[in-house]
Structure formats: structure tokens, C-alpha cells
Specification:
This protein is an alpha+beta fold. The chain contains 5 helices and 5 strands, in the order ααββββααβα. The chain has helices spanning 2-20, 23-44, 95-103, 112-120, 136-168, and strands at residues 52-57, 76-77, 85-87, 92-93, 123-131. Strands 1, 2, 3, 4 and 5 form a 5-stranded antiparallel β-sheet that branches. α1 (2-20) runs antiparallel to α2 (23-44) and α1 (2-20) packs parallel to α5 (136-168).
């Protein structure tokens, strides 16, 4: 993906430079467009496919998958570390509600005391929304397609601008 990103945005910079014929305004346009692209992709990427929701139990064995806050490699977790909690009846309680009313006074919100407090309050797990690692390859292909499309369009625009400039001269 870095290769197609560099190709696409490099050629976009050349096209903008050919259109504006000024270095500093071209740089501002390209950096602004790249910032917009980055922001847009961060918001779009989690929504490319319907997220998967899973409930992770608050087990006594935090080292073997019982810690719901442990990082999961290569999965795109969508709740930003603030997944809602689930009680024994299956009711979902927002993270902010649990932290402000139940166990939020425990430092760092982690550790044995935190999990003991959650269990005393009747919470049995967290409900996590994520994109599984198996989908990330598809997401990369989509982004590579966008980058290559940008490259081809920018190349065509640059070629047209240069030819038009030569014909006018």
C-alpha cells in the first residue's frame, strides 16, 4: 500500500504543479488534499463492511484472553477502548455510565480490583464492535484501487496540461 500511496499522491502533486505552475500553492493544495484523504479514510475504513459485534467475558484469567482491554493484533476495533459493558441479563450499558457510576474511581480502570468491582456490579463482559483481521486485506485492496485510480487520472491530467501548454507556446 505505501507504493501505490506514493505513486498516486506523487503524480497528483505533479498534476497540481502542472496546473498551478507555482510550487508553494501546489504544495499547499496537495498537503490539504492528503490531509482530507487521511481524515476521510479513517472515517470510511471502519464502515466499508458491516462491523462484527462480539461479547468478551470478564474472565478470572486475564492473561489468557480474559482481559477485554488487551490489544488484539490486526483487528480494527471500532469502539476506541470504550466498549459498552454487558450484564448477566444481556443488557448493554454504555462505558461512560459504568465508569461514572460503578467502578470509575479505580485508578487506570484496569487490574484485579477493577474486574472485581465490575463483577460485584453484575457485569459479565464487554460488547466489542470490530472489523476482523480477515477483512483488512480487502480494505487494503480497496485503498490500493483508489490510489491507482488517482495515479492514472493525475497522469492523464498532467499529460493533457503539458500537451496543451506546448501547443499554446
Amino acid at each position: 500500500m505505501p507504493l501505490t500511496l506514493g505513486l498516486g499522491w506523487g503524480m497528483f502533486g505533479v498534476a497540481v504543479g502542472a496546473a498551478l505552475r507555482r510550487v508553494l500553492p501546489s504544495l499547499v493544495v496537495v498537503l490539504g488534499a492528503f490531509g482530507g484523504r487521511t481524515t476521510l479514510m479513517e472515517q470510511l475504513r471502519p464502515q466499508l463492511m458491516d462491523p462484527v459485534t462480539r461479547t468478551i467475558p470478564l474472565g478470572p484469567d486475564r492473561g489468557a484472553g480474559g482481559d477485554p482491554f488487551a490489544a488484539v493484533p490486526n483487528e480494527l476495533v471500532l469502539d476506541g477502548g470504550k466498549a459498552p459493558f454487558v450484564d448477566a441479563a444481556g443488557q448493554v450499558h454504555p462505558y461512560s455510565e459504568v465508569m461514572s457510576h460503578a467502578c470509575g474511581s479505580i485508578p487506570d480502570g484496569r487490574g484485579d480490583a477493577f474486574f472485581s468491582c465490575l463483577k460485584q456490579q453484575g457485569y459479565v463482559g464487554i460488547q466489542q464492535s470490530l472489523q476482523p483481521e480477515g477483512r483488512l486485506g480487502t480494505f487494503h485492496l480497496i485503498e490500493n484501487g483508489i490510489n491507482l485510480t488517482l495515479f492514472v487520472v493525475s497522469l492523464a491530467v498532467t499529460w493533457w496540461l503539458v500537451r496543451r501548454g506546448r501547443a499554446a507556446a
